[in-house]
Amino acid sequence: MAYQFCGSREEAEDLTQEVFLKLHGALPKYDFGKSFTAWLLTLAKNHLIDEYRRTKWEKANRDDFDERVLSQAVADGPEARLAAKETKELVWEGLGLLPADMRMVVILRDLQGRSYEEVAEVLGLPLGTVKSRVNRARLALARVLRERRGGLT
Fold this sequence. Notes:
mainly alpha, Arc Repressor Mutant, subunit A
């Protein structure tokens, strides 16, 4: 989740270490009746948002994401590889332009494949709010991508 939020392996490793330090300090507050995974993801989400606010989140190198997105295009030839790379860059640029709350729902739901219920639990939001926020985030991302793609042609 840290990598998908910031895009830099080194920064994600640092952020993950910070999350686990916070986790260690917060263990006495953990409610054993609740999902540990959701609690951990909530701690991580809050830390990532705090970090974003402190550093104003900038676009970074996304080598691992490149590998995942481009792996299918490799078999399809150089044109498909180039198109996939351009699309990937547009998506990350678009994500970087979304507000943090919209970026987080897209990361959790679309990039990590979590259910709406899991996203609601992690973000501490009602299910309906998550669904509408995902929809608004997707529309905003699509609008940004259309604008960016239009500028490239």
